[in-house]
User: Fold Glycoside hydrolase family 76 protein from Rhizopogon vesiculosus.
Amino acid sequence: MALIKLFRLSTFLAVIDTLHAGVVGRQCATTLSNATLVANQLQLHYYNHSTGRYNNGRLWTDASSLEDLHNLMLATDSSYIGKAALDPYTDWMKFLNGSYDDAQWVILALWKIADYKTARSRDGSAYISSATKIYDMVAGQWDDTCGGGVWSSTNHTYKNAITNEQFLLTSAAGYLRANNETYLENAEKEWTWLSASGMRGSSGLFNDGLKLGSCQNNGQTTWTYNQAVVASGLGALYAATRNTSLLDQAEVSLDATISSLAYKGILRESCDLTTSGGKTCDHDQQIFKGIWTKHLQYYLDNVDDTSRITKYSDFLGSQHSYVVKYAMNPAYDVGSVWYAPNEGGSQWSPAASASGLEALISAGKVRQYVYTR
Ligand SMILES: *[C@@H]1O[C@H](CO)[C@@H](O)[C@H](O)[C@H]1NC(C)=O
Ligand SMILES: *[C@@H]1O[C@H](CO)[C@@H](O)[C@H](O)[C@H]1NC(C)=O
Ligand SMILES: *[C@@H]1O[C@H](CO)[C@@H](O)[C@H](O)[C@H]1NC(C)=O
Ligand SMILES: *[C@@H]1O[C@H](CO)[C@@H](O)[C@H](O)[C@H]1NC(C)=O
Ligand SMILES: *[C@@H]1O[C@H](CO)[C@@H](O)[C@H](O)[C@H]1NC(C)=O
Ligand SMILES: *[C@@H]1O[C@H](CO)[C@@H](O)[C@H](O)[C@H]1NC(C)=O
Assistant:
């Protein structure tokens, strides 16, 4: 619970240049950044994770503090992405720069903002309709080259794992949200194609994509995130169909990650280096491990079999411990390397911090499941 609160606050951090939602008009961005700093420190310094109260607080001042945190979190309308969603004239093709994997990360963010607003009796419809427009653009990228699949970008040079795994997820999750059969058909069509595409190697891990001419697995890197986004898509398709073979298929990739892409039980991207000098992870790659943890959580959200959930709780708990032990600095920035102490190779960026944050949230959420189910 506490982690979830911290998460919402930190989500806010990323979108600090903001309007205060509909209530008081334009807010000064620096005021809100100071507000965020104070709020974060309030949580860090006083919030007691075991009691769910502020140390040395009072019932009514705690209530007021909770209200403040939520006021702050509602002030996200004018993040760059949020503003685009509220503007009915946004040219999404231009905004997304022809990239259909980027497009689908934006869909997931817009759905989350919409849900947050809707749950608080605010209008989330602009976020939903923008997500629908983007989804339709992605769905339009399906064709028969290599037997099916969506293209990764408008230039039609690559059919890859991530864009198609995301399409499985946005289609299946989109069906669960709107009950529109087109989405379910797309999800089924995507999994049928993806599972037979050859992109999953004999180890159970998905490689990056297909060689265009031959339509064979291109043998490129088995990134961590590819192994969990497919699982969250399969979890959503399972929720729609109750076909448990889909969960078995998800576990193939999740288990292969644990056996092949971790060092002593801690996720390690192939580009993660403790010392400086080698070929390190680029900005995109610095968030992949966190995406793995987040999508494992999304997968588990749809799994109703306790043994399938508890199977992963220790692993997620270990990611949490080692992010805190090795990756986090005293200012709560998180570096890119989790599996060993940083000797100059860990990288510091919003992507690396978000990655660490995702590990902490997923661990917190999954443990909660284990206790309450
Ligand atoms: C906090 O407010 C002061 C005074 O308005 C401003 O100069 C400063 O930039 C703000 N700090 C942040 C982190 O925005
Ligand atoms: C949380 O509150 C309990 C009960 O008052 C107290 O024993 C404990 O030390 C507090 N924990 C922290 C980290 O302040
Ligand atoms: C758009 O894509 C092109 C080609 O991939 C790239 O050079 C450019 O930096 C991208 N622009 C933005 C705003 O991301
Ligand atoms: C196609 O687009 C992708 C993503 O924008 C870019 O990385 C790639 O370099 C482009 N390929 C060509 C041949 O333009
Ligand atoms: C279902 O989704 C498709 C694709 O987004 C859309 O074209 C169609 O209008 C939707 N159907 C309904 C009944 O909303
Ligand atoms: C259940 O999923 C498995 C794995 O993808 C698939 O082979 C099978 O055809 C599905 N069963 C039904 C009834 O759709």
User: Anything to note?
Assistant: The first helix runs from residue 2 to 13.
